[in-house]
Amino acid sequence: MQEVGEFGFIDSILPKLGKRRDVLVGPGHDCAVVRSPGRAWLVTVDSLVEGVHFKRHWLSPRQLGRKSFLINASDIAAMGGQPRFCLVNFGVPPTYRSADLVRVQAGIVSAADELGAAVVGGNLSQATQLSITITLLGEAPSRLCTRAGAQPGDQIFLTGTIGAAALAVHQWLRGGTPSGAAVRRFREPEPRVRAGKALVESRLISSMIDVSDGLVQDLGHVCKASGVGAHVELERIPIAPVCRKLPNSATRLALSGGEDYELLCTVPAHNLTRLKHLQAALGCPIHRIGEITHGRGVKVVDATGKRLRFDHGGFDHFASRR
Q1: How many CB atoms lie within 10 A of CB 293?
Q2: Domain 155-301, CATH
Q3: What is the average per-residue pLDDT within 236-264?
Q4: Fold entry, domain 6-139
Q5: What is the pLDDT of residues 260-274, one digit of tens each?
Q6: What is d(CA 104, CA 68) in angstroms, rounded to the nearest whole number?
Q7: Taking the complete model, does pTM exceed 0.85, yes or no?
Q8: CB within 8 A of 81, min separation 6: which ones?
């Protein structure tokens, strides 16, 4: 798996999965979209595993529960949907305190309640390390928007700011004490459900994804799904102010750090004026950072037009290092 990598393995199995008429959107996007009589549902699943996604002292049990739900809700937001029902699977070491597991569950329920969703079941099993896996169903919007659909000339937009959550991880792993702003960003991601719904319902965007594994990598997923390239201007990227205190690391954290859970979307040029009028409805800032181009891959340039080079564009469970 180290040789193949996370996304290489996924690409190898996708052609082997069958197609059905009631599956409107299959693997390769933030959510699957499945149809039942009278309704379409968004379906997503994600895990937080101790030692892979977090160390125990980084989050309290309640914070861990909240984050595990919120990162799944971000996938629903990236498809313009509304979270509704979730199943929870716990893998728990025998030595883990039952009272702490109750707090993890309480965190999940509180985050779900805030976004109008309900926990409707789950599973509990013994494991060698703590893990929380959530399967989340959301109401699909009337118009589907996926990673595919970007066209050359479309402008690239990003909500909020990026880099702060990755800064917290960066400093923890090096024995430091992250700033409060960075820690809060890591512990309590803010899924852009309101913005996602507004953007999709407006019909102004051509594609969308949430930024969970790094801006360059996730924009690369859009490019691959759409068969296009991307030109990003470093000076336009909304890097979190807390990152700018570490100028030597700020660019890398913002472009490849991950954990931000902001929305990245593409907007045809003729919709830019209407997008300005929509900004109040989003509930968060949105910034133009570049343009979709012909070709392949993501090109990031600095203020002088020089292209930036990176060892990797984001997080891969088997091939990359934080």
Answers
A1: 18
A2: 3.90.650.10
A3: 91
A4: 60s Ribosomal Protein L30; Chain: A; (3.30.1330)
A5: 999 999 999 999 999
A6: 9
A7: yes
A8: 31, 42, 138, 139, 140, 141, 193, 196, 197
